[in-house]
Amino acid sequence: MSDSASSFWLKRIQSLTGIFPIGIFLLQHLFGNSYAFVSPEKFNEHSEFLTSLPLVVLIELSTIYFPIILHASLGLMLIYRGQNNFYNYSKFRNWMFFFQRLTGLLALVFICVHSYTTRISSFLAGHDFVYDDMALKLSQPAWFWFYFVGVIAVVYHFSNGIWSFLITWGLTVGPKVQRMSSAITMGLFVFMSIWGVSILLAFR
Known about the structure:
Blueprint: H1 3-19, H2 22-33, H3 40-51, H4 56-81, H5 91-125, H6 131-138, H7 141-168, H8 175-202
């Protein structure tokens, strides 16, 4: 397979996994964490429901961790191969392209640390990670700002990734519709950023 054909399929698989299932999981994760707005008891109740599902480890591995590893691996390959398209897109879109890759790296670090210090470590220790654990962690300024940057990176990477996904799969053709999708996805970024940061503040 030629390099161009290989890149063609790498980009499509990578963009697809960013939406299905990773993007869907991100929305579900934000929704689930929004129980922090209601009460610690409701948050813990929802968390216990998820962790008590039958075959929960298999579900997490197949629908969360493996897709993230695949998406990240393909993304790193594309970063290694790729260049900014300064002659094909505007300066604004090239900056968006740069931040897409930067936030991808930041999001990868954040997801690894977040997953290990919450779900994985609590699973290995044999107890659930509850509201009070997260509240204690976010009461420390270093952890709070780590999560703040991590949440912004994740939601930007997802929101701007939708714009790229639509182009990659030929769903938005032409400058006008691409400008419209850019405005919509940036609006989604603002909304999800406020949503995510509000959840962090709810724990404080």
